[in-house]
Known about the structure:
single chain, 2 domains, 22% strand
Amino acid sequence: MTFDPSISRCGHIALIGAPNAGKSTLMNRMVGAKISIVTPKAQTTRTRVTGVAMEGEAQLVFVDVPGVFDATQTFEKSMVSAAWNAARSADVILFIHDARKKPTEETEAVLNRIKDLGKPAMIALNKTDAVDDKKVLLERTVWFNERLVWQHIFMISARKGDGVQDVREALAEAMPEGAHLYDRDALTDMPMRLIASELTREQCFLKLQEELPYTLTVENEKYDARADGSVEIHQNIIVQNERQKTIIIGEGGQMLKAIGERARHEIGRLIGAKCHLYLFVKVRADWKDKPEAYSYLGLEFGKKN
């Protein structure tokens, strides 16, 4: 049957892949806005992030989830569980693989789980712009084709946008017919306060990189609209000890100021209004062991992957 782009369609696409495969970058490119944070650190995405895009009359609801990996800690297991829950409820699975990296036994284990779900699946070999030897891409394609029947295999660069439109069009065709779940101009169903805290966490990682432990989190204490249309936000940057607090604040408070300036810019750009951002650094050694921390991020406490 010929695809009719005028028919209303809507469906969920789960973005599955290893940490740092480029899932968040791809979703932001699809949506046209920074909904999911992107940093060089692995396992940056901790919560289920939903992005909405239109391709003709097809509404594509992307679900960017934590990377799938062999988790050992309770918090990590909850993250991986969130990823597989999204995959089980999706209409299509889009598997993202960093084309620069040779698939491993862990990659094969993930593909086996995808196969067991019985969902339509596509694969995007990402970061192909960083692969000089095109024979490598052929080898990757052969390897993946031997292990799963893919509806499509794409060569893309989510960072540059190369090949992304082809993915959008293929996903639009794969969506089931039905009414849209969101307004045509919607970008996400995530609370803006959660996105704001994630954007601040992103800037912490980008400014401090290896100095900063992965365990940091950011919580909103206040998110209020002012009469002039601007937004006032109070956030707590939660760390696990005093040394980490000292690193975040920096000499004379300069590091915290720099983080605040960048986060204020990113939040303001997303909400389209002036942002008054106030940051506080607090030590909470056991934050990862508290059920409320999981609830805030949309994770299930004690959930195994």
